Amino acid sequence: MITVNNVSLSFGKRVLFDEVSLSFTKGNCYGVIGANGAGKSTFLKILSGEIEPGKGTIDITPGERMAVLQQDHFAFDEFTALSTVIMGHRKLWEIAQERDAIYAKEDFTEEDGMRAGELEGEFGEMGGYSAESDAGTLLGELGVKEVFHQSLMKDLPGAVKVRVLLAQALYGNPDILLLDEPTNDLDVETISWLENFLADYENIVIVVSHDRHFLDSVCTHVADVDRQKIKIYTGNYTFWYESSQLAARQMSDKNKKMEEKRKDLLDFIARFSANASKSRQATSRKKALEKLVIEEIEPSNRRYPGIIFKQDREVGNQVLNVEKLLKKTDDGRVLFSDVSFSVGKGDKIAFFSRDHLALTSFFEIINGNMSADEGSYEWGTTITSAYLPNDNSAFFEQKDLHLMDWLRQFVPPHVTDVDEPFLRGFLGKMLFSGDEVMKKTGVLSGGEKVRCMISRMMIQNPNLVILDEPTNHLDLESIQAFNESMINFKGVVLLTSHDHTFMETVANRVIELTPRGIIDRLTTFDEYLTDERVKEVRKTMYEADEVLV
After folding, report:
1. What does the alpha-carbon distance between residue 432 and residue 434 come to, in Å, rounded to a whole number?
2. Longest dimension (CA), the chain
3. Which fold would CATH assign to domain 320-546?
4. Whole-prediction pTM value?
5. What does the pLDDT look like over 491-514, one tens digit per residue?
């Protein structure tokens, strides 16, 4: 058990936490959510002891071991991948180092022999004799090939290093597991493995993540960081979001009787309890929801942006035709080849690949920003597209523009009445209000730049949108609003995202780009990933040496 007692933390005049008191108990997984800058990662650092609070204490049950997903990717550069994993169990690693140092002595004494015997006993009790094989198995399950196990961390590709550090945190069944954005840089298969691992985990897990599918899969509780406080709610992210929205609607419905509101809430809890019984965390989540009392459900204080796309005109019969596109990297590696397909009315297509460079290159090609090595594409004459690129730096090269003048550049030529209220309206929808519209582009955060880019897209009134990693840098509120906007959008959507929920809820078609062609299915993203016939086709479409890990 880990207990937070009256913890406060300030940075200058800014108060991050004010007398926060919480308890985290065994058998539960807590998803820490909150707006960007609310202090989610800082809270994990307080729990781990990396940051001392200005006031209050963190108490851990004596004898319990805590493991943390390391954020410093260079801290273990001089160690092998296998050793780095084992170092996740610090006590075991220290015993092994002391024991090996004793055996390396030339003048081995009787006292050394006694100490070595004690260490051997402790080493065995901790499972030290199977440490290397256990670490190797864990690496393999996370997709790290055996050829990398004895390599130094400094020599590993970035995607492999991320998985090694994740294995380090998971190694040895820690009593308390702290994970800050554990799904970053992981592919769909590895994320699925991690979801299953944590769903079966019997100790305490506290995780920060912007991946709603991941939070829904693993969490029994949500720890909401808001207004200098943290409050724990029963249920996963979707339960928290939908229940808070329901509570907000009920609060505004003054004509509805209290008994009817209570019945609606009880029906809502019962529905989620039934759904919970189908999940891998059936027992803990269902029990938690059954213990929930109505008074625990409160409306959220969050501000959600208003992302609304209106089409100037409907899409015609011809949208996009792609013929035999091929693209290679500068060193000759094939990203994709023989890419041929047509986009139709009503299509919302999730583009997928093991190599994200293939996806970004494809989107850059069809937007005219990059040339293909072979093939062609043609847009329909009725199409007005808006593109959200993965890298938006080219749009913010002028650092001294305030947001109103920045947005003014992208108003379509046929729109003539471009006054201040018009521009403020689009910026206001993306939560830039008051004097914030006079911010200079040079001081914007990553999330603010993406919100500006969405304003730019909305002002164009497109009938087709192209999204390359639309959730990058956004907080959960913006992700949720963007996701719902794309579900409701009447036009065509071409997207790729690491956000599983975005892909699953928006797309009605999946196209996978591979070095040997495409796989094209009219299906949802989840159905695509679980289709055994698709899995067999995918095996033939990728060369073994083209897989990153």
Report:
1. 7
2. 92
3. Rossmann fold (3.40.50)
4. 0.86
5. 999 999 999 999 999 999 999 999
